[in-house]
Amino acid sequence: MILVRNDKFEISEENGKVYMLTFSAGFPLKEFDSILRSHPRLKLSNFSILKNVLATESTSPVEIGRWLPNVEAEVARDKMSASIFIYETHDYILKNKEKLTEQILETIKNEGIAHGILDFDISNIETGKAFLIAQGTQPVAGTDAQITYLPKPERKPVIREDGKADYYDMNFISEISEGSWLGEKIPATLGKPGENVLGEMMAAVPGRDFPIRYDKKSAYEVEEDGKTVIRSKIAGVLDDVKGMIGVNRHLPIHGDVGVETGNLEFNGSLSIKGTVTSGYTVIATGDISIEGAEGVSGAKLIKSLEGDVYIRGGIFGLGSTLVEAGGNIFVKHVNEANLVAADSIHIGSYALGSQLSAHSIFVDERKGKIIGGRVVAKNTIVTAISGNRLERRTDLIIESVNKQESYSIMQEKAGNLKKLQSEIAEHEGKIKSLLPLLNQMSKEQIATFEGTKQILTKLKADAVTIDREVKLIMDEMRHAGKEEITVTKEAHPGTYIQIGKKSSLLSKIKKGKFLIEFGELNA
User: Fold this and answer.
1) Distance CA 408, CA 414 (A)
2) Cα separation of 459 and 145, whole Å?
3) How many CB atoms lie within 10 A of CB 46?
4) What's the CA gap between 307 and 450, in Å, rounded?
């Protein structure tokens, strides 16, 4: 088929290939552009071939390109879209809308394009330019599992309208009734599959699942409305049981601990409406709340093995009271007492002649006072005033973490944890293999089986404890080198500041943040 013929050359097409026969050399290359515009289906191989053919007379046709179909479809590499190309002049397109529309539909059918075909107006299609004809449906990723827990009341003093902290008013004990909602998990979804333009299904990325953590001794899970709901097995107080939500047994004492009650030791949480009288001892595994406004005077020992201690009033220790907490201690003021907390100590007014030891110690930064005694922390000490005008010796000490020693301890604990996990897997395997035989067991065998279950429960509890200890050491190591002692108003002469091995006994009033700078204490 002859496409173009003039006195210089002839362009013809045969079997999809385009040829040129040059009669006379010298046709300007720039003028060839008009021929390409009037023949959109003509696609040159490259301009260098055309340039040589135009410059040389020939006796036989030379291949210069190919003859494109007037309608062509192209599917994207990801198969999520397809485009149409029309290689006809704009006038031709406008005059042959119906014919070209049929060709487009036939072309996309032949290419297997079956999904997401878009409506189109052929008048808007430009010659030789891609026109979107089909769009695939993207898969919708599944949502992650959503876990919600009953929030534990934040243990901090209520701030009154005048901006002062009221250590008499704290939400310390959160009572829970049997069957109460403790938390829930909305399961992860699978997502919605997609479909590419060729009709092929595309899998969705499922949402991530997360375990809901709770103390199985005091709570249980049940399916409700497609959700996993955690409810309380017992009445008690909301508690953090080794990093998991749970309910601790609760013993309320409506008066004082003293002659009528004797010393108390309880596996759970204690709330005492009155006080602990002189010489008496209170020990609990969970939280201890002493709500009498007069505080505690002369008690021998108040000890929470795993929880917090809250004393609404102050402590008059008379040189003998010891308060210990596996978590935090909250108190209004402390007089001649010993306080030891694994986490932090919070004091609302003052500490006078007392021994305090914790990870961090906070005495109200606006008006709090530490006068006399010895305050030892691992990370932070905060107070408004230290010492007094009589220059009473007051020790503020931060025992810096020895990274090498801590790393060795952490490695040892990690090794113990690994052994425990191995034992847990072994016991779980035994229990799993014995479960199908439970109905055939003798009383002695059932007793042995139950004993194995109890051992497994203890092993798991020990593993959680060690894991928590390892994480605490890691946290201490991360904060090593960031220790500071803050005295916001007055650090009187007689205040002894020590961080790690660096120390200073103040001889004049100072204030601010005391820390190690360039290897030296800035006091």
Assistant:
1) 10
2) 28
3) 9
4) 29
Is the distance from CB of 197 to CB of 136 less than 8 angstroms?
yes
In one-letter notation, the amino acid at residue 267 is N
* CB contact set of 146 (below 8 Å; sequence gap of 6+): 185, 186
Give me the residues paired with residue 136 across strands.
Answer: none
Calculate the alpha carbon distances from 35 to 174, 243, 520 in Å: 87, 79, 85
Q: CA 489 to CA 496: how far, in whole Å?
A: 16
β-bridge partners, 324: 303, 340
- Joined together, the tokens standing for residue 166 give 């009221």
If you ran DSSP here, which 8-state letter would residue 276 be given? B
Q: How would you write the pLDDT of the chain (523 residues) with one tens digit per residue? A: 898 898 889 999 899 899 999 998 888 888 888 888 888 888 888 888 888 888 888 889 988 988 999 999 999 999 999 999 999 988 898 999 999 999 999 999 999 999 999 998 888 888 889 999 999 999 999 999 999 999 876 666 555 555 555 544 555 667 888 999 999 999 999 999 999 999 999 999 999 998 898 988 889 999 999 999 999 998 888 887 667 888 888 889 999 999 988 999 998 899 999 999 999 999 998 899 999 988 999 999 999 998 899 998 899 999 999 999 999 999 999 999 999 999 999 999 999 999 999 999 999 999 999 999 999 999 899 999 999 999 999 999 998 766 777 788 888 888 998 998 899 888 888 888 888 888 888 888 888 888 888 888 888 888 888 887 888 788 777 766 678 999 999 999 999 999 988 899 999 999 999 988 877 888 7
List all residues 6 or more positions away from 55 whose beta carbon is below 8 Å from its beta carbon.
Answer: 25, 26
Tell how far CA 135 is from the center of its chain. Answer: 36
**Residue ranges of domains in the chain:** 2-67, 71-135, 146-244, 245-401+489-521, 403-479
H or E element at residue 385: strand 374-386
Task: Kindly report the pTM of this predicted structure.
Answer: 0.61
Helix (H) / strand (E) element for 83: namely strand 81-86
